[in-house]
Amino acid sequence: AKNGLGEEAVGLYHQMHRSGVVPTPYVLSSVLSACTKAALFEQGRLVHVQVYKQGLCSETVVGNALIALYLRFRSFSLAERVFSEMPYCDRVTFNTLISRHAQCGNGESALEIFEEMRLSGWTPDCVTIASLLVACASTGDLNKGKQLHSYLLKAGMSPDYIIEGSLLDLYVKCGDIVDALKIFKSGDRTNVVLWNLMLVAYGQVSDLAKSFDLFCQMVAAGVRPNQFTYPCLLRTCTYAGEINLGEQIHSLSIKTGFESDMYVSGVLIDMYSKYGWLDKAQRILEILEAKDVVSWTSMIAGYVQHEFCKEALETFKDMQLFGIWPDNIGLASAISACAGIKAMRQGLQIHSRVYVSGYSADVSIWNALVNLYARCGRSKEAFSLFEAVEHKDKITWNGLVSGFAQSGLYEEALEVFIKMYQAGVKYNVFTFVSSISASANLADIKQGKQIHATVTKTGYTSETEVANALISLYGKCGSIEDAKMQFFEMPERNDVSWNTIITSCSQHGRGLEALDLFDQMKQEGLKPNDVTFIGVLAACSHVGLVEEGLGYFESMSSEHGIHPRPDHYACVVDILGRAGQLDRARKFVEEMPVSANAMVWRTLLSACRVHKNIEIGELAAKCLLELEPHDSASYVLLSNAYAVTGKWAYRDHVRKMMKDRGVRKEPGRSWIEVKNVVHAFFVGDWLHPLAHQIYKYLADLDDRLTKIGYIQGNYFLFQEKEKEQKDPTAFVHSEKLAVAFGLMSLPPSMPLRVIKNLRVCNDCHTWMKFTSEVMRREIVLRDVYRFHHFNNGNCSCGDFW
């Protein structure tokens, strides 16, 4: 047992027991110590049973060994039970309890036991003081620690290397760098532990210069760095964002033979993965022979941080195959990975593993689970888990808000946002970003402005992420001027800021402004990315800049080293298609270096419908239906393409094909908010309580529009027989009904804001222009592709959409 051969000691004990030899208390103490050191918990419990049967529980030496065993395995309740049943406790008993509680972070419990020790008449020794200093460091109780330091000096205890280390650890963890430096300078300068602790001190304040200066002094003093020295420096590099300097420390650790050290490798994996050098982190993990839970967990967390969720779950699986049981951080990271890709099935498996692992009370895991269920759209389970969290923190609340916002449950996200305020929980950056995004996706500008006011009151307007969310809010709600104002008032802008304003201007028909902003972005030294070019190409498409758009597309790879994605190819097809250059668009698709996806063919088919090109339209439809045979939009586009060219038999054939395949067309629907209530309309809708008044108002309005030149044009999709058989109101599109209701209900000074789930048709677009002129009202229509601002008979798109 004394030489670390725990299993052999326990095996010999069992032979002794079978031979009928009764063990002495000293032997039982040795066997229990062997179980503790060799992590043989169950064997230790069996020995405890023998102790109980032989009536040796009252022996102090045996009780001390039992306490050490249970504390080693964090069975604090069993340790306390043994302690309370001991008739006599010595200094070792108290020191064991104090030391283990301090090491486990239970500083307050350690200090309480110390008070009990004093009341029992035992004076502390160096071991006691060292443990108490650790307890004070864990609770941040600097005053209590200073009292212990004074006691040491008054009692005349000569500080050994353990006391020196504990004192320095106290001052370092409590952030008292000045006194820490005094302890360091007065201590044993050959003790590598003191050097390491001082490196930690400078690392806590991210003082990279002093850290490296101290490291140079250490080397000059002849003190050899150990496996804990390099991690201290590497962590400081990580905090300071000096990844290149960290790479040099990595090289130094290789030269000094610490590359394969488990602790050094774990910190290296953490550093590289945090800054996105995932390949390098993965290579370190692969060559590491003695992988521990920290190494695996750092890799998993790095993958999750950079949204490589599938890789994170694969690594999590490999860790278990390697025989490593995940800890609370590993489980929380794996759950977050499941949330990232909405892998609910895997999430449920890990959820059940949480209970088996004994981490069911861990707050970080509960927070991750709340976010998982919310992001997967399982609102009931998410709320249930949320309510079950006893000590909710900001992460718990934000996990629910962001989870709902990311899963499309925007109303639920805003509901939790309001409850958070009612509960007195302070908002932070993550709360505001999620709630503003939810408002933006609902196009709820009123709610968004209220949140914006709260942002201003709480001083978060200067936060870049919040400002970016506000730009997106106003852009998605049709208030492009407010979006621009928010952008230009930002103290600092990143690539997301520029991408958001460029895309917003593009969607609002301000293509030239978007391109001007793109030039400004490059002048300010920001590098455009693939998202930037989506906005730039869309801007060219919406204002008919064909050659300019093709030039920007070519520059992606030639100037910026960006490989175009299918979305970029679809944008180019859109540029050519809107301009009526359909042969050129088809040739571009055929010469693409990658296979055209559904988006590319759908874009081409849509252009063919507008420009009445059946030949290319049929080719696009054929390819599209092979890729997405159950997508209703594909059939509708082809059907309408036949209708506009008068090919009714072909149109009817497409409709029959839809019916035979069980494909249902998504009905057109429009929304408008009036007096805090959102009103929804379908085509030919009679379900609204004011339907009769709406249709009468619409008929009167159409008469006025006709007098100034409006001609209804949506009948071209129907044959004469169909028109005669149907009620004329059945052809009235939902956006017309929404606008009519808005004109009836809203004050003349208020713009009408309408949302439609499909692309606005030619007739409704023309009707909106005439209506804005006759009624002298601004109408903002957001369809599935872009915004249309109608004013004084004109549209912001310039009739090019």
UniProtKB/TrEMBL annotation:
Biological processes annotated in GO: RNA modification
Domain of life: Eukaryota
Alphabetical list of InterPro entries matching this protein: DYW_dom, E2_motif, E_motif, PPR_At4g14850-like_plant, PPR_rpt, TPR-like_helical_dom_sf
Repeat positions for PPR: 90-124, 125-159, 191-225, 292-326, 362-392, 393-427, 494-528
Keyword entries, A-Z: Repeat, Transit peptide
Residues in DYW domain copies: 710-801
Single GO MF descriptor: RNA binding
Listed Gene3D superfamilies: Tetratricopeptide repeat domain
Keyword Repeat: yes
Keyword Zinc recorded: no
Name of the protein: DYW domain-containing protein
Species assigned in the record: Aegilops tauschii subsp. strangulata (Goatgrass)
